[in-house]
Amino acid sequence: MSDIRALLEISHYAGRDLLLAQGGGGNSSVKSADRTRLWIKASGLRLAQLREGFGYVELDLAALVALVRDPLLRAAPRATAHAEAVRRVQAAVFGDNSLRPSLETTFHALLGPVVLHTHPIYVNALTCLAGGQALLAEALGVLPTWVPYAAPGYALGVAVDQARAASGEPAPAAIYLANHGLVAAGETAEAVIAATKRAGALGKRVFGALAAEALETMAPPAGLAHWASELAMALQRLAGWPAGAAVRPTCYGALHGAATEPERWLAAGPLVPDDVVYNGRRVWVAPAQMPAARWLSAQPDAQGEAGRLVVAVAGRGVVVAAASEALAEAMEATLLAHVLIRRLVARRGTARPLAPEEVAYLAEMESERYRQAMVGTV
Ligand SMILES: [Zn+2]
Fold first, then answer.
1. What residue numbers bound the domain in which 83 lies?
2. Quick one: 184 and 158 in the same domain?
């Protein structure tokens, strides 16, 4: 089971660093030496949760490769192809496992023996920047293996396969996913960790380092806890909000700071799939002086976001409301990454948000909803 040691090593490396992975985002896999099996992080779990015998799923590698390269699926409408791919990935699982394989299993199957997919803040500043691909090529001195945006799941698997074929490299060590993240692949855990570090260091060189306090937590700003408790009481009166919902100011100082210009840093639109998966179609902005109950009663669409809501109270700070504490933590880590990416992007240009139709598609994806639900249960 030395393969599993490599899986745990890369998972824990990325899982302990908020700059690399937030919430249940990112995933890891290894393949058996005879290339018949693949072990991958289970959907919805955090990378840091993987242990020997827990948190990963074993799959039939040949079935996965056949799935990504099936010409019939490639010709199908994307929602149909995605649903069929989810079914076939699940069918490729060995043994009786209540966990589901990562939604991104498809692209893992196509790459080297060890694969680590992360959502690094410094790399995503490049992948979410208008003109980021050219800036990356300039910084690297060679053309990067770059994958145009594709929805997670089947579509991303196909896009990675095509980008790899077009790159001319049989086994690129680093693959950049537009508006999404990084995939590092290699022969060993060490090689994959080194490739992840190189990509992050490159982004840091391009944009400059984040402020030292970027990831720091703080006590909530004055009055915000009161606003959050009023919101909690108002949400309790709505259908769809469980009694034990977590409604509170975020713990991150960078998010409260961003609320001074909420439309610019928080509510300018999702940049990456996890923005939608964890925080919904949008971050809401409430005027500073309006009581929470009155604000909510005037927002029928916000009321409909059962189980998760992010509200920037202008000039004061950010409040998260979630069906569980675990989901609240995943939401605020994802939002922190969003704000820090926007701060880095602003140093070099403008952000390229996800297209509205992509946001709508993500919001509907059944398996992404499952992943979001899993965060609250494990
Ligand atoms: Zn991802």
1. 2-207
2. yes
From ligand 1's centre to the CA of 117, what distance in Å? 6
Q: How far is the CA of 41 from the centre of ligand 1 (A)?
A: 12
Distance 233 CA to ligand 1 centre (A): 35
Q: Note the pLDDT tens digit of each residue in 92-123.
A: 999 877 888 987 899 999 999 999 999 999 99
pLDDT band at 374 (very low <50, low <70, confident <90, very high): low
What's the pTM?
A: 0.95
CATH code where residue 138 lies: 3.40.225.10
Q: 291 CA distance to ligand 1 centroid (A)? A: 37
Residue 309 identity: L
Cα-to-centroid distance, 274 and ligand 1 (Å): 7
- Domain total for the chain? 2
Running DSSP on this structure, what letter comes out for residue 169? -
Neighbours of 176 (CB within 10 A): 23
- Does 121 fall in a domain? yes
Domain identity same for 37 and 135? yes
288 token code pair = 């500073």
Q: How many CB atoms lie within 10 A of CB 201?
A: 11
